[in-house]
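Researcher: Following up on the earlier apo prediction. This time include the ligand. It's pyridoxal-5'-phosphate, with the SMILES given after the sequence.
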Amino acid sequence: MTDALSFVDENIRRIRGTISNACAKAGREPKSVRLMAVTKTVAPELINRAVKDGIELLGENRVQEYLSKKEQYISSAEVHIIGHLQTNKVKYIINDVSMIQSVDSERLLSEISRLAVKNGRIMDILCEVNIGGEDSKSGVSPEEIRDLLTAAVNTEGVRLRGLMTIPPPSDSDIFLGRMKELYDRLSEDFPMDVLSMGMTHDYAAAVAHGSTLVRVGTGIFGARNYST
Ligand SMILES: *Cc1c(COP(=O)(O)O)cnc(C)c1O
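Model: Understood. Below is the ligand-bound prediction.
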């Protein structure tokens, strides 16, 4: 089918091809990497097109924006929160999402726990690492991450699944490698199966460095329109 949204189909096909090639080079199975479509500022009809193209996972940054769009989503995709999450917003998403990837404080962890228990569910979480130590980014430093993971595995209602990071764009290759080393080291003490790293500009490198989940926005949907 060729129509105004065909570019989404083509982008997804191309990205899946790039992921397969990066997996082949790294001796990994293509299905060891999940492709998430990041939806910030993207219209629901484009998101639904991606889901029709086989995307099974959506990444939401902004709770308010997600709440305003979710009724229009076709319901077959899973949703993860990937943006900084304010404690007072957890209640709005606790029953809608299957994972919170951006856990960056014990305070947030406690609130997720409280609401998960109250709702009779277990929330999968990733802890966010600020691997480049950048002031502008949320996430916990590599030095402090062990304390947060210890809290996570001792908190009811949450299940620690792994780590998420956004490396500094200019040196992403170096920091993707460091992140994988940190993940492997921490995995000896904390069982984990998800390493979420890689965006439009660095997802192939992230796969080469062992990412199991890449989060792609502009590569699928085109440049973002920040006025929406
Ligand atoms: C926006 C965003 C992405 C996707 O970025 P692109 O460069 O558009 O692929 C991935 N992860 C997070 C946390 C984001 O906020």
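Model: The chain has one domain: 2-220.
Researcher: Noted. I'll compare it with the apo version next.
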